[in-house]
Amino acid sequence: MRDMINAAAFKESILCAYAALQANMQVINDLNVFPVPDGDTGTNMGLTMEKAAVELRKGEFTTVTAAADCVASALLRAARGNSGVILSLLFRGISRKLKGLHEADAKSFAAALQEGVNAAYKAVMKPAEGTILTVSRLAAEAAVKTANDEAGLEKTFEAAIAAGDEALADTLNLNPVLKKAGVVDAGGMGYMVILKAMFASLRGEVFAPQDQMRIEEVVNNDAPKYDARENITFAFDTVYVVRKKTPDVDLEPLRAYLGGIGDSLVISDDDEIFKVHVHTDIPGDALNESQKYGTLEIAKIENMVIQANQNAAGEKVISTDDLDDIEKELEEPEYAAPEKQFGAVVVAAGEGMQRLFRELGADRVVTGGQTMNPSTDDILREINKTPAETVFVLPNNKNIIMAAEQTAELVKDKRVIVIPTKTVPQGISALLNFNIDENEEPIVSAMKEAAANVHTAMITYAARDSDFDGHDIHAGEYLALLDGALLGSYADEKTLIDELGGAFGKYAPELITVYYGEGVKAEAAEATAAALTDLFPDAELSVVDGGQPVYYYMISVE
To answer: Nearest to residue 23, comparing CAs of 218, 187, 162?
Structure first.
């Protein structure tokens, strides 16, 4: 075991950590217990870490400071979901503490772990224990104590991992939901996967990327095994860029099609192009279908089964890096010089929802929401394209708020104000109260007050069987959430509407808006609205085609 961490060792350890996250992604995702379809923790952490791996592979670093700075910058931009943002904060603190060092010894690295924890706790408004925060904090405390006792790097890492494992196991006791489900916290598991992979790399037990299979054995020997060679459902990792026919082309039918022929689907877009990442056995079909929406420009297809076999045999992995320079060019954010004082960027999915936000005055719309959390960089790109001195950002999902807040550190010549809207209807109400003729303070106050006055019911389906919060839930049933809390699980829509009506009654609603999603026919939406009208005859009721994925209905009550 080495005594010091130099730039090369730090780089290798992060590449191993990324490979470990990829190998354990499904294990981490399976720890999610909430039955609603969501942006899974393993996927969000993996996509966040992927950017760091890409940037590290592009360069050589002479100091541990430079390597850590590269990782912190990449993670900040790529952060997705709360777990991805917290991961980026942990490494941002590590980077700060390693500043100015050529190499890091045990004390320096332990102090860096502690600084990462400090950064994460400081940024999270209401830190919840029994999460990745707890696990990282107790691991760092053990590392600092051991290093201060003059222990070397190996003993320091061993202490951190032992304390982290104990804290991870204890998340069941700190979180009643986890205890009932019999699982540990997903974010905490992801953090321990990273820490163990880094330790294994520093000990010379694994090497990236050839030893990805061995990495899994080292970092997760007490958890259910996830062998990439046996669990590759779809063989071809397919990435491509298509130039849109029109700026407002609806990509939701394409999303549904690609979701039916593969998995690990991510679609990101702006007004001109869209980029697709999907795992599938028929990449040609994916490309052909996508060309109905525009002109194919570049594509990259890799056989993951062959790559896994090459990994296992210790051979050099065959990969395509031809698109790196082109993708970097596409990722360079455009910048719109300020032409007005205030502008607005919103996050929304679904053609109808996006069109509505534009009609209400949003300058830019970031495609995203539940199950498809946009990265910090995705949001930053649209902020930079907004021609305003101050840009208000409406995340419209509680798992996107933290990513939106990170953009403030990345924008150079514009001020960013995040209005922490947790649902799309909250965002709509906030934008309706966005008066650009006012000063900043009353604008913020009016938008926050408007959002707070909106109660939102979300109707979706159960993604998994679950015994959650006293509800016996079966996959495929209707699920209703009210202001983020699970209202119930229902086999038929009539019972669901009746229950919603009872819950709405305490708000004495004056205005009810029914936003119906993709796959819901207008006639069905009108019937749902009529049922609500019968329950609340004095309320003003409207029906809007939102076209949103995941949720059959979003119903706002004011």
So the answer is: 218
